[in-house]
Fold:
Amino acid sequence: MSQDDRQLFQLFLQRVEIVGLVGGDAALIEKITEIRLQYRLKLPDAIIAAMATQNSASLVTNDQEFAKVTMLTVINW
Structure:
């Protein structure tokens, strides 16, 4: 990475909130299962969608699969 890229990445990290995945969170597991079954997403995508939904967060992505998850706010990038 160039120095400019590193600085840009550091600025990005200052503007986002990183949330952790907790395996014992029953509500999150329920939401993952619901999204996976309802929208036929792959498990990693269902986890991402559920985490964003549970944290009232917008998901910035270029993956069009997330657009079908109606409960999710998707920002196309």
Summary: The chain has three helices and two strands. Helices lie at 3-15, 26-39, 43-54. The longest strand covers residues 58-61.
